[in-house]
């Protein structure tokens, strides 16, 4: 067994990547968007159908949520590109060229 194979078995314990499937449609994504964020969905719906009702305040809350989420996703994308360029010498796959 070569050094990279030994190192890979120590670091990854036999787990491999999702071949041909990168990004959104993994199990963790469905868990986060379906179960973990359920209280947020209930809160947003309650802003518009609950009592007392204030559509202006509800839209303000939705705009804050969208703004915070967009800021976090864009900053994580920029950080991912910077880390890929600095430590691996190339821009990651969704933006750069695909791997082997």
Which structural class is indicated by helix and strand composition? mainly alpha
Number of helices: 4
Radius of gyration: 20 Å
Number of separate structural domains: 2
The biggest beta sheet reads:
none
**What's the overall geometry?**
elongated
Mean pLDDT: 81
Structure description:
It is a single chain. The chain has 100 residues and is an all-alpha fold. It folds into two domains: 24-53, no CATH class; 54-100, no CATH class. The protein contains four helices and no strands. It has helices at 3-12, 27-36, 38-49, 55-88. The mean pLDDT is 81.
Outline of the structure:
The protein contains four helices and no strands. It has 100 residues and is mainly α. The protein folds into two domains: 30 residues, no CATH class; 47 residues, no CATH class.
Write the layout of secondary structure elements.
Blueprint: H1 3-12, H2 27-36, H3 38-49, H4 55-88
Give me some keywords for this one.
single chain; 100 residues; mainly alpha; 2 domains
């Amino acid at each position: 067994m070569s050094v990279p194979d030994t190192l890979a078995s120590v670091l990854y314990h036999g787990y491999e990547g999702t071949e041909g499937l990168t990004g959104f449609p993994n199990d963790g994504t469905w868990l986060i968007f379906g179960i973990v964020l359920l209280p947020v969905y209930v809160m947003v719906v309650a802003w518009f159908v609950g009592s007392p009702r204030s559509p202006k305040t509800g839209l303000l809350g939705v705009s804050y949520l969208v703004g915070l989420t967009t800021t976090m996703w864009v900053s994580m994308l920029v950080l991912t590109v910077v880390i890929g360029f600095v430590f691996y010498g190339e821009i990651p796959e969704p933006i750069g060229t695909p791997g082997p």
